Amino acid sequence: MAEKIKFRPHHFMCTLGFRGKGYSLGFVRNYKKIAQQLNDNEETQIEVVQFMDSICSACPNKIDEIVCKTQDKISKLDAAHSAALSLKVGDIFTWKQAKEHIKKNMSVEKFHTACHGCSWKEYGVCQQSLENLIEQP
Ligand code: SF4
């Protein structure tokens, strides 16, 4: 059985929009591996966690298992995404279910509010990925 992934709330949307960019070589390598695992097997399980997750584990901004160098921003993103997607710590989704959940619960308008303050937002790939998902039959 595939290894269970852990995501803090805002990383569901980030993973939908991930295009191989990130904070360091190690971060990108780790993220690509996670994205590959999810896309190769959409039944891979993902557990919602409150603090450091499978993506944070290789982030150069990580300080310890609880906080990172941009904690204020990250806490706001997590709170906003939890609310927008009605996520609770301990929830478990397969990647397939997670995408269905995003499609049902996230709109472009909600995305702009939930992702406010993220430096990656201006590149447009996250919005584009969300629009593509919403448009899928
Ligand atoms: S804009 Fe930022 S927080 Fe929002 S999905 Fe993209 S990378 Fe994640």
TrEMBL record:
<dbReference type="Pfam" id="PF06935">
    <property type="entry name" value="DUF1284"/>
</dbReference>
<protein>
    <submittedName>
        <fullName>DUF1284 domain-containing protein</fullName>
    </submittedName>
</protein>
<dbReference type="InterPro" id="IPR009702">
    <property type="entry name" value="DUF1284"/>
</dbReference>
